[in-house]
Amino acid sequence: MPIACLDSRALIRISGPDARSFLHNLLTQDVETLQPGELRFGALLSPPGRLLFDLFIWGEEDGVILDVAADRRDALVQRLSMYQLRSSVEVMPMPDAVFVAWGADKPAGFIDDPRLPALGGRRWGDQSETDATEADWQAHRLALGVPDPAADTLQDKTYPIEADFDLLNGIDFHKGCFIGQETTSRMKRRGTIKNRMMAITFDGPAPERGAEVLNGELRAGEVMTGAEGRAIALMRLDRMNGELTVEGRPARVEKPAWIPDL
């Protein structure tokens, strides 16, 4: 089973008597019922309901650990400190690394990725034997058609449902209030979802980020990140069928099994 260290991720520990209730009122995921050793996926949104930070949430006996994009960790620490007010919590960056494993058998110490079983497992710590690279892991994720919110979304512009958070166990619609809940719940309840991140395939290298996916002469989507022959694109659901092109090359949407018929 390949194991890789994710240099693109970093950790924050939230501790103190109010750690769980503090995060529970902010994040899209239920934190109060999170058990020690359990891992959940969620996000911190802006008040209008757009994505600011994607998060993996690790339960501890005396607090919570957040697994976040490394280049956004300081910004998240600052924002959490702004929300802290009178809550009895301590927000501290951690030096430990994040590791992922995928394949046939999950190594000891790895917890199942809460988004999708095929993504494998995740752990944090100060050391782990690795035999793969982060690029290998990203290729595996891309092959499953799973977006990487840190890379594939536009900060404070993308709604979490557009990034498939509702399909990847990233939103608890029954937990009660969180920042941006009103917009998120309304989109889900009314079915007013016009765009979703989908995998597209094509021949040759990945198009530049922001390249248009066209359906005939109509704009059908926008490429985010990708690799040879495959990319994640934010697609209009009403224009995914038909003769698609990107940078003049034929393209098609490849819907993975974890996405229902839309």
TrEMBL record:
Recorded superkingdom: Bacteria
Domain CAF17 C-terminal: from-to ranges: 195-260
SUPFAM superfamilies for this protein: Folate-binding domain
Keyword Transit peptide found: yes
Keyword terms, alphabetized: Transit peptide
PANTHER family registered for this protein in UniProt: TRANSFERASE CAF17, MITOCHONDRIAL-RELATED (PTHR22602:SF0)
Protein name: Folate-binding protein YgfZ
Source organism (scientific name): Brevundimonas guildfordensis
